[in-house]
Amino acid sequence: MEPTALAFLAAGIGAGIVAIGASVGIGRLAASAMEGSARQPEAAGDIRTSMIIAAALIEGVALFGLVICFLLAIK
Amino acid sequence: MEPTALAFLAAGIGAGIVAIGASVGIGRLAASAMEGSARQPEAAGDIRTSMIIAAALIEGVALFGLVICFLLAIK
Amino acid sequence: MEPTALAFLAAGIGAGIVAIGASVGIGRLAASAMEGSARQPEAAGDIRTSMIIAAALIEGVALFGLVICFLLAIK
Amino acid sequence: MEPTALAFLAAGIGAGIVAIGASVGIGRLAASAMEGSARQPEAAGDIRTSMIIAAALIEGVALFGLVICFLLAIK
Amino acid sequence: MEPTALAFLAAGIGAGIVAIGASVGIGRLAASAMEGSARQPEAAGDIRTSMIIAAALIEGVALFGLVICFLLAIK
Q1: Which residues of C touch D12 (CB under 8 A)?
Q2: Which family does this protein fall into (chains A, B, C, D, E) (predicted)?
Q3: pLDDT value at position E75?
Q4: Greatest CA separation found in chain A?
């Protein structure tokens, strides 16, 4: 079996796992943001800013992980 | 076994895992958005904006992951 | 099987696991930050500062882990 | 199979496991810090100091673990 | 398969498991410390001292475990 075979396998599975991680993480914090905005509508602006900051941190990790999978996929 | 065989396998499995991740994540935050809008109808606009922002972040990760699976599928 | 084959496999799977870890961790603490901001809107600034510090610590570990996976991917 | 093959595998998987551990640990303590800051805003400074100390201890273990994985990755 | 191959594998996996153990442990006790400080802000100093002592004990075990993994990694 050639190395690229496992690289392709890892690219697909890895991209999937990265997406699960990022989605569950952003989904969880955003869910709390929604509930918080509903409970304190006047704090919606503050909560949204915090939500975007935290989601962007997760997004950064996820995109870097996907770049690694991308490098594996184009081998 | 040729490398492309595993690439095809990974494309299918990976696309599925990406879709699971994005769906669970967006589903969870959207569910909270619905409940929040129902509890505080006057905050529905704010909540919808936050929901679209968070869902778009998940969507971005998921689409990049699917592009990787796409690259594997057309090998 | 050549060493690089397992290196590629490890890069993809490793990147996925790193992303799951970081996302779940940041997602959890950010979720609590959202709920806290909603309960005490006047403490939103303090909470956001603490959230960014803690998320940055997780981000640091995750990025270092992804660099290791990146090194494996470009072998 | 050459020894370096398993070293590469261990580097990727190990980096992922380290990141999960550190992220879940920091995520959990930081979540409690957020909730604590929201419940007692006047104690936010004390809580943040304690949070950074505890998170730094986890960070130290995680970075040492990642260095081991790094050594394995560059073999 | 040469013995060093399994040594490398053990170093990576072992470092990951050590980090999970230490992180979950420190994360749990620190989480309780945060909650305790929030409930009794005037006891924050005492709680922090106890937290550092307990976390340092976990840190000691974890670092010794990581040194063992380090010795395996540099074989």
Answers
A1: 7, 9-15, 68-69, 72
A2: Belongs to the ATPase C chain family.
A3: 84
A4: 60
- Closest-CA distance, B42 to chain A, in angstroms, reads 8
Q: How far is CA D63 from the centre of its chain?
A: 7
DSSP C41: G
Q: Which residues of chain B have pLDDT under 70?
A: 1
Which of helix, strand or coil describes residue E2? coil
- Please enumerate in sequence order all residues whose Cβ is within 8 A of that of E44, keeping only pairs 6 or more positions apart, or say none: D43, D46, D47, D50, E37
Chain D hits for C16, CB-CB cut-off 8 Å, are: 16
> How far, in Å, CA of D24 to CA of C54, rounded?
12
- What are the residue ranges in chain A where pLDDT is below 70? 1
What is the rounded distance in angstroms from the CA atom of residue B25 to the CA atom of residue B18?
Answer: 11
What is d(CA A23, CA C8) in angstroms, rounded to the nearest whole number?
A: 24
pLDDT digits (tens, 9 = 90+) for A19-33: 999 999 999 999 999
Chain C nearest-CA residue for A23: C23
Query: Which other chains touch chain A, taking contact as 3+ CB pairs less than 8 Å apart?
Result: B, C
Per-residue buried b or exposed e for A18-51, using 16+ beta carbons within 10 Å of the residue's own CB: bbbbbbbbbbbbbbbbbbbbbbbbebbebbbebb
In terms of CA atoms, which chain A residue is nearest residue B55? A27
Tell me the mean pLDDT in the region E39-61.
94
pLDDT tens, position by position, B28-42 = 999 999 999 999 999
Instruction: Show the tokens assigned to D1.
Output: 């199979």
Residue by residue, DSSP assigns A13-24 as HHHHHHHHHHHH
Question: What pLDDT, on a 0 to 100 scale, did the predictor assign at position A60?
Answer: 95
ipTM > 0.90 for the complex: yes
Q: Do E30 and D35 touch (CB under 8 A)?
A: no
Mean pLDDT, residues D28-53 taken together: 93
Neighbours of E2 (CB within 10 A): 11
The owner of tokens 């129902």 is B38
CATH topology of domain B3-74: F1FO ATP Synthase (1.20.20)
3-class DSSP state for residue A2?
Answer: coil
Cβ pair E16, D72 in contact under 8 A:
no
Q: How far is D13 from chain C (nearest CA, A)?
A: 5
d(CA D62, CA E15): 9
